[in-house]
Amino acid sequence: MEQPLPTAKGSKCLNHPDEEAVTRCKSCRKPLCVQCSLRKPDGTYCSEACWNKVKQHQARWAQDKAKAAEFEKNEAAARWRARLVWFVIFLALVGGAAYYLHTHPAALEKLTQALAPLLKKIGLQR
Ligand SMILES: [Zn+2]
Ligand SMILES: [Zn+2]
């Protein structure tokens, strides 16, 4: 005699009250005897309808997961684009400032004078 699964132990088949249940439907949890259990690649079911319900559910779940992954990918790409934009702006500002000071020695001189007390304070210039 086949050993009943722990989940169906002590239960009787819902369709055959005299038969010991050996398993439960993976979808509706109905106790099932050997005759009534419908074996599918991913488990045992009471009917095609129950199996289809689970299959549909799994398909939707996979779809949702794919959608979530796609969303996350787009989010990450957007974050990187934003970082790149800020980096370009930063480079343009630094480059522009350097170019300005390079082409305007008087401004560089003024800036150095303005910064001198500060540099002295932090000990970079004596
Ligand atoms: Zn079922
Ligand atoms: Zn049965």
From TrEMBL:
Pfam families named among the record's database cross-references: zf-B_box
Record-annotated membrane-spanning stretches: 84-102
Swiss-Prot/TrEMBL keywords: Membrane, Transmembrane, Transmembrane helix
Molecular function GO labels: zinc ion binding
InterPro entries reported in the protein's UniProt record: Znf_B-box (IPR000315)
Residue ranges of every copy of the B box-type domain listed in the record: 8-37
Name of the protein described by the UniProt record: B box-type domain-containing protein
Organism listed in the record: Candidatus Ozemobacter sibiricus
